[in-house]
Amino acid sequence: MDIFLQQVVNGLTLGSIYAVVALGYTMVYGIIQLINFAHGEVVMVGAMVALATIATLAGSTALPPAVVVFAGVACAVPVCMVLGFVMERVAYRPLRGAPRLAPLITAIGLSIILQHVALLIWGRSPLSFPQIMENPIFEFAGAHISMVQIGIMLISVVMMVGLTLVVYRTRLGVAMRATSENPQIAGLMGIDVNRIISLTFVIGAALAAMAGVMVGTYYGVAHYTMGSLLGLKAFSAAVLGGIGNLAGAMLGGILLGVVEALGAGYIGEFTDLCRYSWLADLLAERCAQNQHFVLFGSNYQDVFAFLVLIAVLVFRPSGLLGERVGDRA
Q: In order of start, what are the domains of the chain with their CATH numbers?
């Protein structure tokens, strides 16, 4: 039971990060029907900028740790927002009327370009998060949860709720939903469609920056290739919940994180061939020597995200909550 609760805590932490990144995917898709595969690299840039800033300030100033971390966030968010705006203006807007394959290939190309730009700026070596803050660990029902994990989950909830309020309770949100429904009609009603699309990319990039800071803080490192796998997992979360649906992205991210953590915690036990009597007889010598013959270990945890994606695409292509699509004349 202790293992189960611990993996649930770890899964909720991972799921919170996946949900924040998935929101960026689902916002862009909801507006212009584009899968922005470069979004994971925006997360990477946010993490690299934040950790580089934090490492520089921690080594050269005597500022309080909280101020240093806030400075890292304050640098990462504007950089990613500008990056998101430039990506939309330079790479995606000229292709808005092109066949869907063109912007998709462009997104993949942008992802590769951003990786190599990060390689040139920060090098191949991972950036480490300096130990400037205490990270107390609390025990709850046998499970251990750190202050960093609590902070990640709380900040994620605040961002999810804030984004939902923006989309459904503000004039900007009304304009975004109108643009998503029908850009041509929205333009005729006085909405600046290009501005709304750019703002959507900027908001998504700001969320990506915060996710990058959370990933760097949680794992303690950032690397120029970290965005690829994280982006694919977040995309899987968005598809799981129903891409184009904000609630679906949140639900998909949380579920994917919990499934991945539980899978990593129990896959070694379930694939230990020596625990099955009919196989233990066949592997008697091997089991007698090592007591265990594990087929898959916890290093296979990344597989679960894509197994879930395949299952969803096969049995429910629209996702758990599906995409809210209005009837058009």
A: 2-130+145-315 (1.10.3470)
Residues 271 and 61: beta-carbon distance below 8 Å: no
pLDDT tens profile 211-223? 999 998 898 889 9
Q: What is the DSSP string of 118-134?
A: HHHHH-SSPEEPP--S-
pLDDT tens, residue by residue, 101-133? 898 899 999 999 999 999 999 989 888 888 777
Length of the chain (residues): 329
Quick one: tokens of 321?
């909550």
What pLDDT is stored for residue 287 in this prediction? Answer: 64
How far is Cα 175 from Cα 193, in angstroms, rounded to an integer? 8
Residue 318: helix, strand or coil by DSSP? coil
Amino acid sitting at position 48? M
Taking phi first (over 0 means left), then psi (-120 to 50 degrees means alpha), and beta for anything else, what does residue 322 get?
left
